[in-house]
């Protein structure tokens, strides 16, 4: 039987679900209302955290910047609890875009609330269309799980990625390590080495279904979730 992968609900689920399926997993979409965190963790073999709205600054003890919009407090609370429970249970975790940010906050980190106004950058971090449009390159740390998974796709230590975000990791949660940076220094990937599998990326690998460029990330999650 394929391992059951819980996918945190978001507005655009199709690419996440299909990516897990293509990687050999059994995608499951739990409900914030119907599935308590404890039930999700005990009912799946791996967790996929998805993209979406800004993470509320209150979750990491800051007042909101004027650009922070579309905050969903119910989702924030649920996913932060879900990450903490999943990490405590040593479930394999793959976190994407907002998911990376939620994972970092849940583990004690903080965020850049708005890259353009708080950091300033010439790198395009918001290229919405087409969804698989290459926005910029990112570095890949040698010896990282990211490097291992992506293999020959990493050329001279770099990957070409898409990008749709204005927030980013700032203070890194204890135990996590940075395994990818954009040319402007924005953190593009984190890993938790002590975990069986815990990888977060700031881009959207699920949008490359046609080329399957980033399918190895999902395959890594599914492989780690197998008994």
Tell me what the structure shows:
The protein has 227 residues and is α/β, with parallel strands linked by helices. Helix content is 27%, strand content 18%. It has helices spanning 14-22, 37-43, 73-88, 98-106, 115-118, 145-150, 215-225, and strands spanning 4-7, 26-28, 46-49, 93-96, 111-112, 136-139, 158-161, 168-169, 177-181, 187-191, 198-201. The strands form 3 sheets. A 7-stranded mixed β-sheet has the order 2-1-3-4-11-10-9, sandwiched between helices. The longest helix has 16 residues, at 73-88. The mean pLDDT is 96.
Features:
single chain, about 230 residues, alpha/beta, 7-stranded mixed β-sheet, two-stranded antiparallel ribbon, 7 helices, about 25% helix
Give me a quick take on this structure.
The chain is of the alpha/beta class and 227 residues long.
């Amino acid at each position: 039987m394929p391992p059951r992968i819980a996918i945190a609900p978001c507005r655009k689920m199709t690419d996440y679900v299909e990516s897990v399926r293509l990687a050999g997993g059994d995608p499951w979409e739990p409900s914030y209302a119907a599935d308590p965190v404890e039930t999700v963790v005990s009912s799946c073999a791996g967790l996929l955290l998805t993209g979406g709205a800004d993470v509320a600054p209150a979750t990491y003890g800051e007042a909101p910047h004027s650009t922070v919009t579309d905050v969903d407090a119910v989702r924030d609370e649920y996913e932060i609890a879900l990450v903490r429970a999943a990490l405590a249970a040593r479930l394999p975790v793959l976190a994407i875009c907002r998911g990376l940010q939620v994972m970092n906050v849940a583990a004690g980190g903080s965020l850049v609330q708005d890259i353009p106004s708080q950091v300033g950058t010439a790198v395009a971090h918001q290229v919405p269309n087409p969804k698989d449009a290459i926005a910029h390159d990112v570095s890949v740390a040698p010896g990282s799980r990211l490097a291992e998974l992506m293999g020959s796709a990493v050329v001279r230590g770099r990957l070409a990625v898409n990008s749709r975000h204005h927030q980013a990791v700032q203070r890194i949660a204890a135990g996590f390590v940075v395994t990818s940076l954009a040319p402007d220094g924005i953190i593009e990937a984190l890993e938790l080495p002590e975990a069986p599998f815990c990888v977060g990326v700031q881009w959207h690998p699920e949008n490359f279904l046609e080329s399957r460029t980033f399918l190895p990330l999902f395959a890594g999650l599914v492989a780690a979730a197998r008994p």
